[in-house]
Write a structure and sequence with these properties.
Elements (H helix, E strand, L loop, with lengths): L1 E5 L4 E5 L4 E2 L10 E5 L6 E8 L10 H15 L4 E8 L6 E2 L6 E14 L10 E12 L4 E13 L4 E2 L3 H13 L1 E2 L12
Antiparallel strand pairs: 1-2, 2-12, 3-4, 4-5, 5-10, 6-8, 7-8, 8-9, 9-10, 10-11
Length: about 190
């Protein structure tokens, strides 16, 4: 794993050195950093979002993680989605440094979505393992998600695949995730 600068170095996280930056291949929204494994369907996406407040999510990190997972299912036009576990940090919020905003998280959600890609019929939909981590910067009205996607069942062939590699990539990226420059987050109070 290699520490990679995200958003011009405002955030860093460790990723496999072979991962390709999707912005070298296609247009990626400014709010996202997208990386692709060169030899598989594994992808990792970091996204800076407005802090969600829907359905009690403003004060509940589990609800916020579930909201982001549901939003991802909607964006993926998922045929179904299920959450298998949510882990909320038990430690108190940690200050990120003198004069810096508090960073909450990560809250980790693991689940699956059934997604029909590339105009395949629903009968050939893939089952995709979704691992999502959520950090929150309340003073800047920002949520940051890190998501690893990995097809564990390929619909067309029915091939079943383990997700050990996806878990390893996700766990290391989450463990090493660090905000270096809170200026990345425009909203809220500048503490």
């Amino acid at each position: 794993m290699t520490s990679r600068p995200l958003y011009g170095g405002a955030i860093t996280a460790s990723l496999p050195p072979s991962f390709l930056d999707a912005s070298d291949l296609r247009q990626v929204p400014d709010t996202q950093e997208v990386f692709l494994a060169p030899d598989s369907d594994l992808s990792l996406i970091v996204e800076v979002l407005e802090l969600v407040k829907d359905d009690g999510s403003a004060d509940d990190l589990e609800k916020a993680a579930r909201f982001h997972f549901s939003s991802l299912a909607h964006d993926n036009s998922a045929l179904s989605s299920t959450v298998s576990s949510v882990s909320v940090p038990s430690a108190a919020p940690r200050p990120s440094g003198p004069g810096q905003p508090v960073l909450l998280g990560p809250t980790v959600l693991r689940g699956q979505q059934t997604v029909s890609k590339f105009n395949k019929p629903e009968s050939e939909a893939d089952t995709v393992s979704i691992q999502l981590a959520l950090w929150r910067v309340p003073a800047r009205n920002a949520d940051v998600t890190l998501c690893v996607n990995w097809p564990v069942r390929v619909g067309e062939t029915g091939e079943e695949r383990g997700d050990d590699e996806a878990k390893r990539v996700f766990d290391e990226a989450v463990r090493s995730f660090e905000v270096k420059d809170f200026g990345l987050f425009a909203g809220g109070d500048a503490e």
